[in-house]
Every structure is written in C-alpha cells, then in structure tokens.
Amino acid sequence: MPKKRSGGGLTGTQQAAKFLGVSVLSGAVLAGIALPAAGAIGLAAKGTVEGFDEIPANLKTPPLSQRTTILDAKGDQIATVYSRDRTVVPLEDISPYMQKAIVAIEDARFYEHGAIDLKGVLRAINRNAQSGGVAQGASTLTQQYVKNVFVEEAGDDPDKVAQATQQTLGRKVRELKYAIQLEEELGKKRILENYLNITFFGQQAYGIEAASQRYFSKHAKDLDLGESAMLAGLVQSPSRFDPVNDAEEATQRRNIVLQRMAETHSITQAEADQAKAKPIRLNVSRPKNGCITAVKDAGFFCDYVRETFLSDPVFGKDREERGKIWNQGGLTIRTTLDPQAQNSVQESIKDHVNQDDKVATAVTLIEPGTGKVLAMGQSKPYGFGKNETQINYSVDKDMSGSNFGFPTGSTFKPFVAAAAIEQGIPATKTYSSPYEMSYPSPIKTCGKPFKNTDGDTAENENRSEVGPYGMKEAMAKSVNTYFVQMTGEIGICPIVEMTDKLGVKQGDGKKLPQVPSISLGSQGVSPLTMANAYATFANRGTYCTPVAIESIQGPGGKSLAVPQTKCTRAMSEQTADTVNTLLRGVIDSGTGEAAGLQSRDSAGKTGTTDHRKNAWFVGYTPNISGAVWVGSASQQVHMENITIGGVYHPKVYGGKVPGPIWKDAVTGALEGKDAPSFVNVHIPDPELDWDLDEDEYDGPDRRPHRNRHRGGNDNKPGGTQPSPDLPFSPDVIGGNNG
C-alpha cells in the first residue's frame, strides 16, 4: 500500500474531495461553463493555478528532441549524438499490437471519451478513497501527452522538470484545458501517434522507435504481441519494470498488459494466454551516443563538428540558443571528412606511434582553396580509459583542444619569409648568419619598439653552421640566425600582420606576442591552424577559413544554413610561389627529405623545439595540406633516448618522426587523385659549403646536421632543436620552448 504523507497529508476523505473537485471541474469544462477566479476548491489560490480562463488557449508544443546523425563527405555514418534518443515515426510505422497495448493499459476508453474520462475520474475517486492515498490516476492518454509536452519543454533543467510533473491541482487543470484543445485539433490517431513518439520507455529511449531498437533491435512496426505488451507496461515505471535489470518484474507487468488487452477485447483470451506463456526474449542494442562511438577513429573530428555548431553564430545568436538546437537534434549533418584521407591518417599514425607511447601525435589534413577539413586523428584515442583522452590535440582550447597549443619551432619560419618577400626582400637575400648573435635592438613592432635590454641571444644548432647564407639555403638548413637577422631588418609588425592574414593565433585564442623569438616558433599553435596556414601557400596566397560541415538537414528534411569558408588574399601569387619553391628545397635536399613524395610536387618544413619537447612537420601539395605534431601534451617529455612506435630514437627531429607520418598519411589520402604542380620560381642556388662533423652525420648518406638554437631550429635532417639552456628570459622573448 502506498505510504501516506506525514505531517499534514490528506486523509482518504480529503483525497476523495480533491478528486471530486477535479471531476466537477471536468464536467463544468466539458459543458463550456466559465469558472470563477476563485471557488470552494481554491483553484486560484496562490501557488496552485490561474483562473481557468486565464490559461493560454494554445498549447505550444516544442519539437521533439531526436538523435542527430553525423555523416562523412561520402554520406556514410560517423556517429549519432543526442540529448534524448528518439526517432519520430508515423502511426503506420508502429505495430498495431503496440497501439492496442498502450491504449488498453493506459486509457482503455480512449476512443470513447473526450479529453477527460468522467467514468475514469469517478473510478479513481472511489479507488483512492478506499486506499487512503493515490492508488489510481484518472489521466487520459491526451492528458498524459500534455504532461509529456511540459516535460519535453523543460529539457534537462531539473527545476522545470519538477514543475512539469508536480502533483498539484493547478497542473491538472492546465492539462485538462490543453487536452480539450488537442482533442479538437488533432483527433485520436494523431494524439496516439504523438504520445507514442514522446513517451519515455527507460534505458535512455524516448519514443517507441528508439525503445523498440533498444530492447529488441528492430523497428517499431515489427513488434509482436508480447514485445508490444512489455513496452506498454514500461510506461508506468520504466525503472521498476526494466526487463534488462529485472526480468521477473517485467514479465509480471507484461502479463498484466496482456490480460488487460483481452479484457478490452483488443485480443482474444487465447492470444493473451499464449503470449503469457512465452518468456521475454530481449535483443538489446546498447545506447550508442556521442562522439565516443564514432567510427573511422573520427571521435575528435566528431567533437570538432559539435564545437563548430555550438560556436558559430550561423546556428543561433548565442551558445545557449545553439545548444538548445543541438540538444533538440533530429539533424543530419554531412561533413567534409574524407573517408580515404581519414583512413590513411589513422593507418599512418598506427604505423609510427603506439597508443601507450610516452608521447602522442596529432595529424590534420586540409584541402587548399576550400578550407575543408579532410581528416583529423591522433594516437591517443577518444575516450576515458588508460592512454585515451577527450582533448583534441589538433584544435584550439575553445574547440576542446589543448590549453595553449604547442610551440611550432622552425615551422614558423616560412611565415617570416613570406612577410619579408611581401616587404620587397628578394629571395636571394643574404645575411651573415653567425653561429650566435644578440637579438637586434631596437626592433620595430606595430607599437612600441622592442629593445634587447637583457642582451638575449640566438644561436644555430652547431658551430659549423656559419653564413653567409641565401634564403633558399637558410630555409633548407633552417638557419636560426638568418631569420633573426631578417626579423631585425623588416621588423616584427609585418610578421604578425602576415600571420593574422593566415589565421595564425595561439592555441588559447590570443594574438601572437610581438617579440623577436616569434621568428623561431616559440609560441603554442594548434596543428589545424598550422595546416590551414600552409594551405594558403598551396593555394597561391589565398587564405580560406577552415570548415567541417557541408550541409545540414533538420527534422522533416528542411535545409539549414551552414558556415561557408571565407577566402581572402594574404599575399601575392608571386610571394606564395616563391615560398613554395623555398619549401620544396626543404624536402628535396634539406631537413625534410624523409618526408618527400616521389610521384607529386610537395613542400614543407620541419620543426623541433627546446629540449625536444615538440617535433613538427607541416607540408603540402597543391591539393592537400597537413600538419603533424609529436610530443607530450603535458610538455614534460624530452624526446631523447626514446622509443616511439617500437623504434628507438637517440634524438627526435621533425623530419625523422613527424615527417614520415605526414608522408604516409598524404600518400594514402591522395592515392588515385590528380597530381598538379606548383608554379616554380627560379631562385639561384648559393654555393653549398656545409662544414660537416662526422659525429653530426644523420645516416649512411652523410647528410649534414642542421643548426641548433633556442626557439626552434630544424637544421639537422629530421628536426629542429633549440638549445636546452637558453640564456634569455622567457618573459622577454615569449618563451624558450619554441
């Protein structure tokens, strides 16, 4: 027997009086009699209900929240996400057994009465008066549907949900008025359809289609008699009658439904008895919600799509409004993810970096000219377990990425070169490029000039690397002092103006600081940002903002507006072609030789930062651009005497670990696709005279070791390595881990 409330709970007589008041009200409403603002049953008492006539005449039914499906560029499913797992289906796609079962157990006189069942009310009055509590309700299916609309509108707000389900006379009166409206406007079949699509069936399943899939892995139209009865029985108490956790209780409840169907002549007694004799046979499909379920190892890309939706004003005026649309769901989102490219990225990652390695890698591929994100992967999978993470190393902090991005090392130098060429510096420009030098002082910025008051210095990787150097050789060898001298000549302002045009900002969203070490990649940037900036070189100087969403269809197939890439000229075609020629030299004979492609034009730049905490390769062809980062997200691992992907490395360089990852990923992504060429610019080669030390050879081909410096130098084939014992203050130059 239900427990009575202590401390002032209603007696059985009082409960009867309360229900009698409802029945009197029901009759009055049905007769069209206007109610006074206050009366014997206290309808207008504060905290109960407004006067009946003051209740809004139209029930505003919010769209039902449904699952959202995320597809790749070919239309194949990546993942499903939802606030409430629901798929709305028409009544003809719901088993007739299910329709009969829910009516029999919840409102047997559904087709006989109007919005309010007076016989049901009187029956409930009698039953509850006898029990001394609320043993039986009198709500019709229409009233229950109205209550579910209130709950749906409340969303995940616990206070609003409590208000929508509170056991007060006020709520009952509102239900009654709206039920009358719906009976007149929708009719019985539409009300039944809506009810079956909105009701909660437990196990995260909202609506009959989701419930049918969850418990029996079949469509609602295919439910048999026993399955329908079991699901209908869940509505009263989804947790108590959950067949997954309590088969015995669920069976008893199912049999009650079957018997009720026989009593109401929905089925014969023989059919009911036959169905009762069968055990419940579940075929459970576990909930598959969220980016953690994404296929093709696309969990991080899926998360990037979600963050794009929540952050872009095209989907709503603020994040709260966009969040409501996302949670409402029912969307089909076609993305830019290329399955061939994504598969190639993941295969390359698995071939070179293990999930349980001390360091991780993140790889992002972009299509030049469109900004389409083609692939996004990393070696630590999307998840909550050991050696898993939900941090997307490829993107900025505001898109669920790392807090600051990762220092880029020498991969920043092409931005300096582009800025200089735009300022009129010729590609044949020569600087003395000593092994070590003080930062020039003062250096022009966009504001107050920088002064090297502390005497901070920059150096190359080894003493044998001394100029003079021309731009082509300096880029191939990644000579630090060359680019410091270049920065001293043109100033810092042209560099930050160039990076602004290329969409380059720190991983925390802040602008790059105007300090000399900017030329050596001391600041943290995300792989997505770097890949997209280099795509501008591939696109002959036109920068396009990254996009991940191709199209969205809302509930009912209505198309939604989606963000479009915005393309602007960042530099002249001549400048871009010159940078492309410079970076082809890095791959042809410089630090990135291990990343070179055999069958198509390619260009790129290596980068390694202080103490070998980060190693990079950012490269591109005319039709794809990609960035590869390797390092520790915590920035605590020095990549020396380390095993990565089962291969021992005395020292990690940008060309020796990230470079081959890039090469394999891009090779697979472009297999079978066109191989356009760069527009080559003739840059006279300076006479090469590398002073080699036998201890600094990097392999049997005796390629010379690249210079080393603080802030990021990649002069040794395979990577850039700044000095671990930097004498300058991080507060002055922006950090010593570039």
TrEMBL record:
Domain of life: Bacteria
Sequence intervals crossing the membrane: 20-45
Catalytic reaction(s) noted: Preferential cleavage: (Ac)2-L-Lys-D-Ala-|-D-Ala. Also transpeptidation of peptidyl-alanyl moieties that are N-acyl substituents of D-alanine; [GlcNAc-(1->4)-Mur2Ac(oyl-L-Ala-gamma-D-Glu-L-Lys-D-Ala-D-Ala)](n)-di-trans,octa-cis-undecaprenyl diphosphate + beta-D-GlcNAc-(1->4)-Mur2Ac(oyl-L-Ala-gamma-D-Glu-L-Lys-D-Ala-D-Ala)-di-trans,octa-cis-undecaprenyl diphosphate = [GlcNAc-(1->4)-Mur2Ac(oyl-L-Ala-gamma-D-Glu-L-Lys-D-Ala-D-Ala)](n+1)-di-trans,octa-cis-undecaprenyl diphosphate + di-trans,octa-cis-undecaprenyl diphosphate + H(+)
Provenance organism: Streptomyces sannanensis
Domain Glycosyl transferase family residue range list: 75-261
A Pfam family reported for this protein in Swiss-Prot or TrEMBL: Transpeptidase
Keyword Hydrolase recorded: yes
Name of the protein this chain belongs to: Transglycosylase domain-containing protein
